[in-house]
Backbone:
């Protein structure tokens, strides 16, 4: 019977394995938290200025001002969640408790969803006012505006049921830090993969594809109507339309990252 002898080098030094450094992650979180603080303060100033202008110089009986006022409120709701998220990213741990985790998660999505829908609704209202100005004079009234706003808030609230239920705090067993995110582990009979998939398609179609299709179609028709008319400032109007569409694309772009996380 043959025996095999292996040569070992007992003088070889073994380099100990050290945990991965989290400095880069912490630095990124600190930078993003600073951006969130700035966005929060800028939003307070900008939306507050809009509220003052509407209150002093405009009438709340017009359709545009009613929609704009609701857009301001939805923006303030969304921005109110950013300081908590900024602290969370800066400290890399959730310090506000389980209840606030659910509240902040729900407020974030409620403000975001309603902002997207109100931007879409404002675009559609401009389309009616420019392209079908004569035929929609009786339709575009205060009741129409209030009913439209109620539908937007209802849809946005229903879409927030999932994050409101699933947002929870848990302690990670590796780093012993508290996290706040969608965590259905404590809910019985919940298919996590199916829930994430349904949430992804909900965001994708209702709050991304549908708004973009409506906005592109409406502003295309508005631009065609303006260019075919004899308005002196039509080129400035078309340029303004292009800028608005570009801004809307940037506003809707973050939802792609939300969709990627939901998959």
Residues:
């Amino acid at each position: 019977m043959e025996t095999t002898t292996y040569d070992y080098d007992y003088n070889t030094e073994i380099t100990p394995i050290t945990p991965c450094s989290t400095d880069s992650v912490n630095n990124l979180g600190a930078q993003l938290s600073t951006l969130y603080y700035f966005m929060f303060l800028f939003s307070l100033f900008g939306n507050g200025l809009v509220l003052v202008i509407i209150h002093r110089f405009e009438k709340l009986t017009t359709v545009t001002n009613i929609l704009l006022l609701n857009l301001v409120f939805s923006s303030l709701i969304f921005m109110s969640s950013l300081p908590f998220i900024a602290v969370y990213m800066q400290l890399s741990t959730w310090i506000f408790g389980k209840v606030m985790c659910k509240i902040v998660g729900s407020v974030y999505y409620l403000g975001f969803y309603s902002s997207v829908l109100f931007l879409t609704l404002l675009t559609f209202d401009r389309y009616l006012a420019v392209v079908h100005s004569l035929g929609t004079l009786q339709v575009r009234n205060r009741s129409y505006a209030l009913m439209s706003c109620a539908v937007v808030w209802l849809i946005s609230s229903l879409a927030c049921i999932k994050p409101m239920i699933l947002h929870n705090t848990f302690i990670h067993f590796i780093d012993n830090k508290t996290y706040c995110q969608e965590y259905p582990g404590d809910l019985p009979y919940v298919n996590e993969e199916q829930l994430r998939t349904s949430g992804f398609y909900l965001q994708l179609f209702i709050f991304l594809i549908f708004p973009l299709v409506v906005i592109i179609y409406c502003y295309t028709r508005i631009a065609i109507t303006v260019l075919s008319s004899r308005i002196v400032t039509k080129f400035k109007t078309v340029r303004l339309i292009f800028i608005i569409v570009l801004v809307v694309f940037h506003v809707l772009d973050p939802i792609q990252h939300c969709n990627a996380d939901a998959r």
